[in-house]
Specification:
Number of domains: 2
Shape: elongated
Number of strands: 9
Strand content: 5-15%
Low-confidence stretches: 35-42, 256-260
Number of helices: 9
Distance between the termini: 57 Å
Bound molecules: zinc ion
CATH architecture of the largest domain: Alpha-Beta Barrel
Structural class: alpha/beta
CATH topology of the largest domain: TIM Barrel
Length: 260
């Protein structure tokens, strides 16, 4: 289009249109950058706890997939040495096979959470009735052995969808994942496991390592020693997950983070 051939009024109209488009752009920029927006999260996703923001240097140490006779006992001994309480997410079937280990965990003042009865690798593909069955069967074992209901649930492998989250919520559990997991293919030694944790951990964080499911968790045992010793030196206090959740009333927003 040759602007020179346009009449004066047509030229005014073009510049006005350009100005209006510019004005709309400025308004959109101001709206999107200067007004606070709520994060878009689905209601079930926001119910999952990865960490609890707190002002004090508190962290929760959690163990999955036990109890197992050898490594769980070694871990208990270490926790006792440092006067640290932890949270154990146990597999119901393992509990039935190792009742004396369950008793020692309880006697040590640690907390037990529900980690399903058989630890299915793909719980998220199960129909709701089977998800309920896995959680309830584990809960029956927990109640029988501890005399009370578990408050906490952790899905196997941390895989959670809306169905699993809804079932857990309806049954009165807090669904607990983690801020950082020490076990990872890029951390083949206890030292590197601990390093993974130190890189990410901060007040209110939840640390995951394991005391079972594979026959030998010696790396997790040594990593426990390094992690606890080092974080205590840095001024951290170890609390159980329910103790960490108690801080939520003071700091009501739960934060979500990628699983590292
Ligand atoms: Zn597990």
């Amino acid at each position: 289009m040759n602007i020179k051939r346009l009449s004066f009024f047509q030229r005014i109209g073009i510049w006005r249109t350009i100005f209006e488009i510019f004005l709309v752009g400025v308004i959109l920029f101001v709206v999107f950058h200067h007004f606070p927006r709520k994060p878009v999260v689905s209601s079930w996703y926001s119910k999952i706890v990865y960490e609890v923001p707190v002002s004090k240097k508190l962290v929760a140490l959690t163990y999955d997939d036990g109890p197992y006779p050898v490594d769980t006992l070694k871990i208990l001994k270490l926790l006792d040495k440092y006067h640290v309480k932890a949270t154990f997410f146990m597999i119901g079937k393992q509990m039935e096979e190792n009742p004396e280990v369950v008793k020692m965990v309880l006697d040590g003042g640690h907390v037990i959470g529900n980690h399903t009865y058989t630890h299915p690798a793909k719980l998220e593909t199960y129909p709701t009735a089977q998800i309920v069955g896995e959680i309830d069967r584990c809960e029956q074992v927990i109640e029988k052995m501890t005399g009370k209901r578990a408050q906490l649930f952790r899905p196997p492998l941390g895989l959670v969808n809306s169905q699993i989250a809804s079932v857990a919520k309806d049954e009165g559990y807090h669904t607990i994942l983690w801020t950082v997991c020490g076990d990872h293919h890029d951390a083949p030694t206890p030292q590197l496991m601990a390093k993974r944790v130190f890189k990410v951990i901060r007040p209110g964080g939840i640390i995951l390592i394991h005391d079972g499911r594979y026959p030998d968790r010696w790396k997790d045992v040594i990593a426990t020693d390094i992690i606890v010793k080092t974080l205590l030196k840095q001024g951290y206090h170890f609390v159980t997950v329910p103790q960490l959740l108690e801080q939520e009333s003071k700091w009501p927003s739960r934060h979500t983070h990628s699983l590292l």
